[in-house]
Amino acid sequence: KEASVDVKATKEQAEEALQIASAAEAILIHDAEGFEGAGGVLLEVKDRKKQLEARRKLITKPMMQAKKEVDELFKAPIASLTRAENSLKRAIGRYVEDIEKQQRELIVEAQEAHDSGEESEDVREKLVLATEKTPPKVQGVSMRTVTKFEIVDVSALPKHLMKPDEVKIRAMVNSGLDVPGVRTWTEKSVSARPQA
Questions:
Q1: Tell me, what DSSP letter sits at residue 141?
Q2: Residues 34, 180: contact at Cβ < 8 Å?
Q3: Is the pTM higher than 0.70?
């Protein structure tokens, strides 16, 4: 059985958290006493955050489980339809490319026939055939030409198209290596664990 959530208490808890957060963000530390006080507030902030997270998960866990089940129900049929869609698009694209190729060949033949002095009627027939070689129209289906690319030589790319791999840079910096073109520095990272 799912635990119920007291909506009123949750709203009150959220309001208190907003007030605590606002007060905490205004804290300035000037001495040891202020430092100790800020540490205490930090622990309170962490504890409130943990409580709110627990309440949020109590509410969202059943929703997430339901979403997971719904996603699983639709996953296979949607994947199958996506594969079918892509297959049909490729087949239609190949058909249109074939038609356009035949059309270009007929135009070349007509031009060659004209250049060799063939009868104007024969040339005209070839041009008519070329213009008739068009794919049929289907309502809702359209074609557009898309330019594609493939990188064949990374070293030949212009420098402004290179993207640094920050994960690898971080690993090198964390292992103490100097990386040309990278500035490193340190900052204090504070962690807090509320006492149980």
A1: B
A2: no
A3: no
Query: How far lies 16's CA from each of 40, 45, 165, 193, in Å?
Result: 17, 11, 42, 20
- Average pLDDT estimate for 84-100: 93
Phi, psi for 141 (deg, rounded to 5): -110, 125
Helix axes 32-115, 7-25, angle to 10 degrees: 100
Q: Two tokens at 136?
A: 């049929």
Q: How far apart are CA 123 and CA 129, in angstroms?
A: 10
Q: Measured between alpha carbons, how far is residue 109 from residues 96, 99, 113, 125 in Å?
A: 20, 15, 6, 11
| Whole-number Å distance between alpha carbons of 47 and 64 | 24
Residue tagged 């996953």 (tokens): 75
CA atoms within 13 A on the CB side of 171: 5
Distance CA 60, CA 136 (A): 51
**Per-residue pLDDT tens digits for 25-77:** 999 999 999 999 999 999 999 999 999 999 999 999 999 999 999 999 999 99
Location of structure tokens 């504890």 = 47
